[in-house]
Amino acid sequence: MGHPLVQATGRRKRAVARVRVRHGSGQITVNNRPVEAYFPNETHRMVLAEPLVLTEMGENYDIDATIHGGGPTGQAGAMRLGIARGLVALDADLRESLKRAGFLTRDDREKESKKYGLKKARKAPQYSKR
């Protein structure tokens, strides 16, 4: 593989994706595996490819991603953000359409941490009057 044209980072929930964009034929690789092997669910593959479909750049670039943390949904969302940021770094004219579609917005919703004395983040033990 040649040197990446652009490297971008995407995050979602606990997942972090480092995305490298190269000239190529449209292959997507995740953690040195084909995207079909890493994301067997069609929905996750569709989510991460949305920026490529919107900009019609899927056939021009190869995507190589390194993902860690989180689950499959968070990882697919992180990769989508990374791909969108990488495409904007390559061509600033794409920014408006990607922004309008919501692909450049970092979804900052995270799991709330558990508090001491409680069973979960907010769930308290059952109250007993007597």
From TrEMBL:
- Identification of the protein by name: Small ribosomal subunit protein uS9
**Does DNA-binding appear among the keywords?**
no
Q: Which PANTHER family match?
A: RIBOSOMAL PROTEIN S9, SMALL RIBOSOMAL SUBUNIT PROTEIN US9M
In which residue ranges is the amino acid composition biased (Basic and acidic residues)? 101-115
Q: Which Gene3D superfamilies match?
A: 3.30.230.10
- What SUPFAM superfamilies is this protein classified in? Ribosomal protein S5 domain 2-like
Question: Is Repeat one of the keywords UniProt gives this record?
Answer: no
The organism sits in which domain of life?
Answer: Bacteria
- What is a single Pfam family found in this protein's UniProt entry? Ribosomal_S9
Q: Where does the secretion signal sit in this chain?
A: none
Task: Give the similarity note.
Answer: Belongs to the universal ribosomal protein uS9 family.
Name its species.
Candidatus Neomicrothrix subdominans
Cellular component (GO) terms are: cytoplasm; small ribosomal subunit
> Which portions of the chain have biased composition (kind: Basic residues)?
116-130
Keywords (A to Z) from UniProt: Ribonucleoprotein, Ribosomal protein
Single GO molecular function: RNA binding
Checking InterPro entries in the record gives: Ribosomal_Su5_D2-typ_SF (IPR020568), Ribosomal_uS9 (IPR000754), Ribosomal_uS9_bac/plastid (IPR023035), Ribosomal_uS9_CS (IPR020574), Ribsml_uS5_D2-typ_fold_subgr (IPR014721)
